[in-house]
């Protein structure tokens, strides 16, 4: 059997993913949430888990540093990585949206200023609509941008809608549905076909068993 390297990001979704892997009979004995270790093996060392930043998961998988990645669709879309997306884990559900002040109306005759952590996603969405934009790339708290005049609207993920609401903003347009997905390196999919398939099947069975 070939060994598999799986890239995950730390945080809440990773905890859920590890619980699912354990439910699928893959035990990572040393793993605990507060550990600062970045590499873990299962009991027979057939699986190596590496923890990377969520935005970097698609890059590790595209370049073959990991065979498989488990990460939010938001990061997959933004990265534009050439990978196979083979499973929707059905967790971490949220939406990509355009948000701004209620009743804000977009003027098609001038460039729209869009603050976002996801410039590629914003660019693609508005170019499809023929709307010219200028992106302001931020790394967080993007809801602040319209409030202080840094941007007209934002493109961001919306889960409960609380952050928008508490800042007097609202969803203007929906872009895409987001959830945690499993992605596979294209070469690994061919050279480690058996191992990749059996990993996905085991994970899928465990997901079907858990409510
Ligand atoms: C995320 C996202 C939204 C918010 C959506 O921000 O960028 O701001 O959560 O969740 P809600 O709809 O349930 O309020 P995060 O907390 O990750 O902080 P950051 O954007 O500053 O990184
Ligand atoms: Mg935010």
Automatic annotation (TrEMBL):
| Span of domain ATP phosphoribosyltransferase catalytic | 53-204
Question: Which CDD domains does the UniProt record give?
Answer: PBP2_HisGs
Q: Indicate the enzyme's highest-level EC class.
A: transferase
Tell me the InterPro entries matching this sequence.
ATP_PRibTrfase_cat, ATP_PRibTrfase_CS, ATP_PRibTrfase_HisG, ATP_PRibTrfase_HisG_short
| One GO term describing the cellular component | cytoplasm
Metabolic or biological pathway, per its Swiss-Prot or TrEMBL entry: Amino-acid biosynthesis; L-histidine biosynthesis; L-histidine from 5-phospho-alpha-D-ribose 1-diphosphate: step 1/9
SUPFAM superfamilies recorded: Periplasmic binding protein-like II (SSF53850)
Reaction it catalyzes: 1-(5-phospho-beta-D-ribosyl)-ATP + diphosphate = 5-phospho-alpha-D-ribose 1-diphosphate + ATP
Principal location: cytoplasm
Any Gene Ontology biological process: L-histidine biosynthetic process
Where would you find this protein in the cell? Cytoplasm
Q: Which Gene3D superfamilies match?
A: Periplasmic binding protein-like II
Entry's Gene Ontology molecular function annotations:
ATP binding; ATP phosphoribosyltransferase activity
For this protein, the Enzyme Commission number is: 2.4.2.17
Keywords tagged on the record: Amino-acid biosynthesis, ATP-binding, Cytoplasm, Glycosyltransferase, Histidine biosynthesis, Nucleotide-binding, Transferase
Pfam families linked to this entry: HisG
Describe its assembly: Heteromultimer composed of HisG and HisZ subunits.
Q: Which PANTHER family match?
A: ATP PHOSPHORIBOSYLTRANSFERASE, ATP PHOSPHORIBOSYLTRANSFERASE ATP-PRTASE
Function in brief: Catalyzes the condensation of ATP and 5-phosphoribose 1-diphosphate to form N'-(5'-phosphoribosyl)-ATP (PR-ATP). Has a crucial role in the pathway because the rate of histidine biosynthesis seems to be controlled primarily by regulation of HisG enzymatic activity.
Q: Which family does it belong to?
A: Belongs to the ATP phosphoribosyltransferase family. Short subfamily.
Supply the domain comment: Lacks the C-terminal regulatory region which is replaced by HisZ.
Designated name of the protein: ATP phosphoribosyltransferase
